[in-house]
Amino acid sequence: MLRLPPFELKVPATAAEAVRLKREAGAQGAYVAGGTDLYPNMKRRQQTPRVVIDIRRLPELGTIATASDGTLIVGSAVSLSCLIRDPLVRQSWPVLAQAAATISTPLLQNMGTVGGNLLLDTRCNYYDQSYEWRQAIDFCMKKDGTICWVAPSSPRCWAVQSSDLAPVMVALDAKVRVVGPEGPRTIPAAALYQNDGIDYLTLRPDELVTAIEVPPLAGARADYQKLRRRGAFDFPVLGVATWARVDQAGVVTDARVVLGAVASYPVTCREAAQALVGQRLSDDVVDQAARTAARPAKPLDNTDFTIGWRKEMVPVFVRRSLLSLRPA
Fold first, then answer.
1. d(Cα 99, Cα 120) in Å, to the nearest integer?
2. pLDDT tens track for 44-56
3. Position 35 confidence tier, pLDDT thresholds 50, 70, 90
4. Phi, psi of 317 (to 5 degrees)
5. In this structure, are residues 16 and 98 in contact, taking their beta carbons and an 8 Å threshold?
6. Beta strands of the chain (E only): which ranges?
7. Cβ neighbours of residue 142 under 8 Å, at least 6 residues apart?
8. What is the pLDDT of residues 145-183, one digit of tens each?
9. pLDDT at residue 17, as a whole number
10. If DSSP codes are grouped into helix, strand and coil, which group holds residue 124?
11. How far is the C-alpha of 82 from the C-alpha of 110, rounded, in Å?
12. The pLDDT value given to residue 171
């Protein structure tokens, strides 16, 4: 049985206190809400914080509301189950409920949080193993080693960003609220990530994600498609988030296509989205955009299925997602 290493649990009363506790703990501290990612990582000794700061009980992090301009404000500690069931989300931002419902199982959806999924640790076949397994082959670059076993000659880690909500938030042009020792700030969801398996987040030291701002769809449509081996539980080996605004004539005036689980960050396919603008979502236009979207997807041997087949599935799933955006 894998057991947690010793740690001290802190339960702050406010977000400001949480930030202070994290700053005092430094590199030995970690925030936790649902714990569905952190605690398994601790059991495998991938992360070994000495101080764990529980933020789930902070009231300002646990609400879903709308601002005066119609923006959806989702607290980072809102559970995935609450996001899935929320009537406002289901009616006005159905793609969020759709994507959240594909994450893991109902049991873990009850524990896992929106912020936790957005900040999900990058994954890899050579990293997400027990300590003894990793020690037997020699540790990888992401933890305790110097070599990326996916690409041994590479100077960087290629672990994959496997969040389901991340590509959706990027496609929706969402913003992320954070608070840190230097005060609060808001950053675009796309700017939260960078293409590095180890330093995959752009958060400053000790910053805490408090909420996500999602603009109203305002007539636009969005969709999420997920590829995985099983219909439940599994992380994505491909996630496709699409968003498009279509005028009354059926012509696309703006669009976004974002791929998840193909790199260490959500990949925005700008060329594919641009190919849709000024066009109707005909079969030919969608097929061309889907083929274009597949170009930046360069899967490696770090997740499930074969590399070649995963690459072939990118245009298939992009096409499937774009077709769902067609006006009724």
1. 15
2. 999 999 999 999 9
3. very high
4. -75, -35
5. no
6. 8-10, 29-32, 51-54, 64-66, 72-75, 175-180, 183-188, 208-214, 221-227, 238-246, 252-260, 267-268
7. 46, 122, 124, 127, 148, 157, 159, 197, 198
8. 999 999 999 999 999 999 999 999 999 999 999 999 999
9. 98
10. coil
11. 8
12. 98
Exposed e or buried b per residue across 60-76, where buried means at least 16 C-beta atoms within 10 angstroms of its C-beta = ebbebeeeeeeebbbbb
Amino acid present at 68: S
Determine whether 272 is exposed, middle or buried from the number of CB atoms within 10 Å of its CB (0-12, 13-18, 19+).
buried
Report helix, strand or coil for 244: strand
pLDDT at residue number 298: 85
Q: How many residues does the chain have?
A: 328
| pTM (2 d.p.) | 0.96
Q: What are phi and psi of 120, to 5 degrees?
A: -50, 135
Residues 6+ away with beta carbon under 8 Å from 84: 90, 97, 100, 101, 109
Phi, psi of 211 (to 5 degrees): -165, 165
Domains, in order of start, for the chain: 60-119+160-214 (3.30.465.10), 221-323 (3.30.390.50)
d(CA 146, CA 140): 6
Contacts of 227 (CB under 8 A, 6+ apart): 236, 237, 238, 239, 261, 310, 313, 317
> What gap in Å lies between CA 84 and CA 56, rounded to an integer?
18
CA 175, CA 239: separation in Å to the nearest integer? Answer: 20
CA distance 3 to 1: 6
> Can you read off the two tokens belonging to residue 237?
């080996």
Query: Hey, what's the torsion of the CAs at 307, 310, 315, 321, to 10 degrees?
Result: -160
Mean pLDDT (the chain) is 97
pLDDT in tens, 174-227: 999 999 999 999 999 999 999 999 999 999 999 999 999 999 999 999 999 999
Q: pLDDT at position 328, please?
A: 77
Q: Any idea what DSSP says for residue 48?
A: -
